[in-house]
């Protein structure tokens, strides 16, 4: 068995897809198990080639994982905690970034400013596994959702990455006037934020979506346009080649942005250096420098770029 650890969120899973597919191709006769949060299952199954999902939470013991896998691969991070979670299973071999505190001296060195897709491809390439970084596409889940919507996703994990609600509302209001059908999406924890944005924009009650992950992915796959902050939905837009505009704050798009050669994805960033993405707040100055006019202009640009859907 090949056991891979990636117990993080939607964007983290999406950026690891090329590395996961590289491992699948390198070990065609092996069971490939992915240790990840169970709620990501609707998205994991769209990757293809994952034989088993081991429910896992970030940096918690892998109690449900089989002991002594032939190979354990750490696509989670470079710190000792994630290394030790896998080493506790006594794998035949561990593929991971070098980590002296964990006693793992094999593996390449960690580069802080590396793009997340390139990072994990570089890791598996170190061990001889080919990994095309452009292999980011996902299969769209089957779900009964409206098509051709303009997805506006105002939430983000940390306060520093959340553009102000009144600016999201200004964008939604003007897009609706231009003939779009805005749909405000977010997690259950972001419900109040979505309702506030919708109300400020003067949208009807049904403009706030209630979706699970599978339905959200299906909405993005069939959307006219996606506008979001630096969060998981932007990576879904990349996976489905849906025209998108992503607003970046503390973190540079050079680390988490879409492929730079796709004119139908646009990153907006006014930062000068990349910082941590989990800052507690307030809203990062680079994000506050973005205006609704700038977002609307970018939205117009990406819609006019032909995206191979």
Automatic annotation (TrEMBL):
List, alphabetically, the CDD domains matched: GT9_LPS_heptosyltransferase (cd03789)
| Keywords recorded for this protein, A-Z | Glycosyltransferase, Transferase
Q: Is Endoplasmic reticulum a UniProt keyword of this protein?
A: no
Gene3D superfamilies xrefs: Glycogen Phosphorylase B
The domain of life is Bacteria
What is the protein's name according to its record? ADP-heptose:LPS heptosyltransferase
């Amino acid at each position: 068995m090949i056991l891979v650890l990636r117990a993080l969120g939607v964007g983290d899973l999406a950026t690891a897809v090329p590395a996961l597919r590289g491992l699948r191709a390198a070990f065609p006769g092996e069971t490939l198990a992915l240790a990840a949060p169970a709620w990501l299952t609707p998205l994991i199954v769209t990757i293809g080639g994952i034989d088993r999902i081991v429910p896992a939470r970030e940096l918690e013991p892998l109690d449900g994982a089989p002991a002594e896998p032939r190979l354990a691969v750490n696509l989670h991070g470079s710190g000792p905690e994630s290394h030790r979670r896998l080493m506790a299973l006594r794998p035949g071999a561990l593929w991971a970034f070098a980590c002296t505190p964990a006693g793992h001296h094999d593996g390449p060195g960690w580069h802080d400013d590396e793009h997340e897709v390139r990072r994990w491809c570089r890791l598996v390439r170190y061990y001889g596994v080919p990994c095309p970084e452009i292999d980011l596409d996902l299969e769209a889940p089957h779900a009964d959702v409206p098509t051709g919507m303009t997805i506006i996703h105002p939430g983000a994990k940390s306060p520093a990455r959340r553009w102000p609600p009144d600016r999201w509302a200004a964008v939604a209001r003007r897009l609706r006037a231009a003939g779009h059908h805005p749909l405000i999406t977010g997690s259950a924890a972001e419900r109040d934020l979505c309702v506030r944005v919708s109300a400020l924009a003067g949208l009807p009650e049904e403009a706030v979506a209630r979706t699970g992950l599978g339905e959200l992915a299906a909405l993005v796959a069939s959307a006219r346009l996606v506008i979001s902050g630096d969060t998981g939905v932007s990576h879904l837009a990349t996976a489905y080649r849906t025209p998108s505009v992503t607003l970046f704050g503390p973190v540079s798009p050079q680390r988490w942005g879409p492929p730079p050669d796709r004119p139908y994805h646009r990153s907006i960033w006014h930062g000068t250096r990349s910082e941590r993405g989990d800052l507690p707040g307030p809203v990062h100055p680079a994000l506050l420098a973005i205006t609704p006019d700038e977002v609307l202009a970018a939205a117009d640009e990406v819609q006019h770029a032909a995206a191979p859907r």
